[in-house]
Amino acid sequence: MDQPDCSARKPGGNDASDTVIEPSGLRAVPDTAATSPRRQANAANLNALAQADRTDHFIRRNDRIFAGTHLIIEVMEASGLDCEIRIQQAFRQAAELCGATLLHIHTHKFSPQGVSGVAVLGESHITVHTWPEIGYGAFDVFMCGDADPWQAVGVFKDVFDTEDVAVRELLRGAELLGGDAL
């Protein structure tokens, strides 16, 4: 894969990733918790979600029902972790290979080094925070539905030129019926 030129900032040096929102600029949103009925997961409504013809449905796998697969991915001894463009390319490739719908990418480069980023997906998200000075990237890939987050692991190995990757899988929402999330 051709590697992008990461030595320069985006044109003008100011984009959405450089925007700071002050707390005083945030609008209060009314708390609807008091007026909304409390919902509780049970076998019947989780089964209905898993059976329903929906793109955001719960997953049924090996007699288990859960909201989605969440991977905690430790990328070590890696290169290119200080490059926003490379991270954005990895997000795009991962979303595509996983079968996810990419909605938005936002990254921020820190000084003197490091990048944080999020790819918002129709199926949930991919996030990262990097420590390029030690070759480490902490990735988080959460997807529901038919998307396969495990495909992201190979993308990160390739894009960041490493084989040193550790992965932990959590089945989000598995505890709703008393199951084990690990």
Describe the structure.
- This protein is α+β, with helices and mostly antiparallel strands and 182 residues long.
- The protein is built from 3 helices and 8 strands; from the N terminus they run H-E-E-E-H-E-E-E-E-H-E.
- The protein has a 6-stranded antiparallel sheet, covered by helices on one side. The protein has a two-stranded antiparallel sheet with strand order 1-2.
- Helix 2 runs antiparallel to helix 3.
- The longest helix is centred in the middle third of the chain and has 15 residues, at 84-98.
- It starts with 42 loop residues before the first helix and ends in a 10-residue tail after the last strand.
CATH class of the domain at 59-182: Alpha Beta
Number of strands: 8
Distance between the termini: 34 Å
Question: Main β-sheet: number of strands, strand sense, barrel status?
Answer: 6 strands, antiparallel
What would you say the CATH architecture of the domain at 59-182 is? 4-Layer Sandwich
CATH superfamily of the domain at 59-182: S-adenosylmethionine decarboxylase
The helix/strand order is: HEEEHEEEEHE
Contiguous low-pLDDT stretches (5 residues minimum) are 9-23, 28-34
Sum up the overall morphology in one term.
Answer: elongated
Protein topology:
Layout: H1 43-51, E1 59-61, E2 64-66, E3 68-75, H2 84-98, E4 102-109, E5 115-121, E6 124-131, E7 136-143, H3 151-159, E8 165-172
Helix pairs in contact: 2-3
Outline:
By secondary structure, this protein is of the alpha+beta class. It is built from 3 helices and 8 strands; from the N terminus they run H-E-E-E-H-E-E-E-E-H-E. Strands 4-5-6-7-3-8 form a 6-stranded antiparallel sheet, covered by helices on one side.
